[in-house]
Structures are given as structure tokens and as C-alpha cells.
Amino acid sequence: MAKSGLSILDPMEMWRDALAQWEGTANKVAGKQLKTEEFAKVLHSVSGATMGMQQALTKANKTVLKEMNLASRDDLAEIGERLHRIEDMLEFLCRQVSGKSPAASTPAPMPPRTKVPPTPADAPAAAAPVAAVPATTPAAEAAATSVAPKAAVKKAAGKSAPKRAAAKPAAKRPARKKA
């Protein structure tokens, strides 16, 4: 690329050239030093000292936690593994007793909570499972959980129903990972 008369006056170009030359020189010198036996010895001794300090710190932390009667991270991990094994055994025993898995038996869906008790006319609509209608948006969810009771209240009262908060489905417990 040909240099124009203005490129000589560009301080940023001069800075980039100087920086590139400095990086090239530094890389050559560092490359030569990294290949020497002395550098390898120093690096080995530094990493050995670091490992020794880390082991001493771990041992001191365990001693302090034991003196304070607190559990260490290893103790908590062991308790978690034991709890997981106990839960698996309980699940196995429940399957043996009932003949089916506990996860397969889900309770019947609860009707939406309203201020007005359901009337016999809208009882089948209120007992319909809410989870059967896929609710992809909050508006669709609100419509799926509260349309039938609102219509029944309007018919019974003969006027517009009072505004209510939409019933939200109960939060499900996240599935546990099995090892």
C-alpha cells in the first residue's frame, strides 16, 4: 500500500508501528528465555510452592471448621450423597408397596380459587383440568383458569362480575437428577 503525504502526520499509525515493533522484540526475547533450563526450574519450584501452600491452607481450614464444630464442603457433599441414596430407597419402597411409581400418581388439579363459591351449574366446568389447555402466554393462562367461573357468576348475578386476580397454577417441584 502506498503511503500518502498525510499518513506521515498520522500519530496513531506511528503508535501502531512502534507497538508492533516492541511486541515483536518482546516475543523474541521471551521465546528465548522460555526455552532455557533455568526458567523451567524456576517455574517448577514456584508451582511446587503454590501446591504446598494450597494443601497447608486446606488442612488449616479443616482444622478450624472442626474446632468450630462446622461442616466442611466435603462433609456437606457426603451428606447430599447420603440423602440422595435415602430418597432413592424411599422411592423404591413406595413402588414396592403401591405397585406403581410415586411420580406417576399426580393429585387431581385444584379448581381455580374464587371469592364466589361454585354453583351446581358450573361445577363440571370448574372441575375440568386446567393443565389440559396449553397456556403459552399470561393472557391465555388467565383465560384458561378463570373463564368458566366468570361466566357462571355473570349469569347468576345478572350483571358484570367483579374483577379478580387470575388463579395461577401451583409451582411444581423440579425433577431430581438420577445418577
SSE layout and pairing:
Layout: H1 11-34, H2 37-67, H3 73-98, H4 123-127, H5 138-157
Keywords: PHB biosynthesis
Biased composition (Pro residues): 108-121
Region (Disordered): 99-179
In short:
The protein contains five helices and no strands.
Note down, in words, how this protein is organized.
The chain is built from 5 helices and no strands. The chain is 59% helix and 0% strand. The chain is mainly alpha-helical and 179 residues long. The protein starts with 10 loop residues before the first helix and ends in a 22-residue tail after the last helix. Among the domains are: 47 residues; 27 residues. The longest helix is centred in the first third of the chain and has 31 residues.
Observed structural traits:
elongated, 179 residues
Terminal-residue CA separation? 62 Å
Could you list the spans in which at least 5 consecutive residues all have pLDDT below 50? Answer: 131-135
Tell me the helix content: 55-70%
Structural class: mainly alpha
Largest sheet: none
Q: Hey, roughly how much beta strand do the residues contain?
A: under 5%
Number of strands: 0
